[in-house]
Amino acid sequence: MRFRLTPRETSFYDMFAASADNIVTGSKLLMELLGADTAGRAEIAERMRAAEHAGDDATHAIFHQLNSSFITPFDREDIYNLASSLDDIMDFMEEAVDLVVLYNVEELPKGVEQQIEVLARAAELTAEAMPNLRTMDNLTEYWIEVNRLENQADQIHRKLLATLFNGKYDAIEVLKLKQIVDVLEEAADAFEHVANTVETIAVKES
């Protein structure tokens, strides 16, 4: 860790932790979606929308702090990238739930539950990792595991696409379901972007 002669704004750490905790909330709502009926899904979508708005507020707070701070705990570009990637995760999860409701999907294809389980695990790891930005300790296993989970998500996504195009579904249903599983895959990619940004920060700070 480099020795610094100047104090640094420390509220960023709490803000990143809060943003990641909100993502855990979103991942739990995704899990709830799996077992919900049509009416329940609409209610879950409302709660997910509120969580997404909370995520936006957290992101804007980080940007405001960034613009008003003379000294930051690490590079401004990395702070921006980390906040943006965390926000992207929440956006994708909210979009997936919203699409399920808007498209009135009666049954999600087998394999979506695996996608969501991967996202839930990545959310837990991310929330556990954010407080460690203060010391840059115990982060290596985090980004390695998130990258492994993203590879797993890729495999699940490919299998889901194969299922959608096996002739069981009509063309319109394929379009609807493909958009949902694609958005969930984008959420997995966004988790990897967060992990890669954390790795970049850790390397610079070492």
TrEMBL record:
Query: What Pfam families does the database record attribute to this sequence?
Result: PhoU_div
What InterPro entries would the database entry show? PhoU-like_sf, Put_Phosphate_transp_reg, UPF0111_domain
Gene3D superfamilies xrefs = Phosphate transport system protein phou homolog 2, domain 2
Q: PANTHER family, alphabetically?
A: UPF0111 PROTEIN YKAA
* Family note: Belongs to the UPF0111 family.
- What is this protein's record name? Phosphate transport regulator
Q: Which organism is it from?
A: Streptomyces griseorubiginosus
